[in-house]
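pls read this protein:
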Amino acid sequence: MTAQRPTGEPPVVVVIPARDESARIVETIRGVRTIPGVVSVIVVDDGSTDRTAVLASQEGAEVVRLVRNHGKADAMMSGLGRLAGLRRVGRVDASASVLFVDADLEASAQAVGALVGPVARGEADLTIATLPEQQQSGGGHGLVVGLARRGIEELTGWEPKQPLSGMRCLSPAAIAAATPFARGWGVEVGMTIDVIDAGLTVVEVPCELYHRVTGHDWRSQVHRAAQYRDVALAIGVRRLRRRLGTD
């Protein structure tokens, strides 16, 4: 479903990668719909076993359903693929920025709207949400965040506060620079490096967002190990590109 854009508001397309988020997806969609300028909400159901896709469709979202789990980066790319289709049939303007939003934000998702202004005004090509301290603490030790921060600083000279934040608004130029995305959980780090390498501007913006925090159990530790692997790969690939480019 494509909404009518209020006069004067720059168009924004929201892409929400989701897996087994039936308990939260409806409130998240309703939250982003309150953001001025949103013309379409695309939910990519990444191999869910619950009713995520059904509920998103009932809320009027454009739904892309992946039969099996492909991972976050592929889900995000699938969302951009649907956006390209909407552009081809004239349902979305080519000037629209893209707002990536995590599926578990529920009503707090409306705060992601703070990312849109700097991109709409041409002050930034990529804005990244920084989140307040969450109501529940995570079970990690900061290893993945530290790796991500050091890698971005090493390759670009910029030190982000929250390098793994998934809430991001990108201009068309930033989308062109950052795609295809780095695989898996390396998508945010790869995106940041690629956008800065293209000579574009990246800005972090505080947003009052609250989401589910990864816990302490063994599944959470496996998740963090996968994150570390993918972030390290994204940094390593871009480090190698630098070296090959100067040889």
About this structure: Confidence is low (pLDDT under 50) at residues 1-7. Residues 5 and 120 are 14 Å apart (CA to CA).
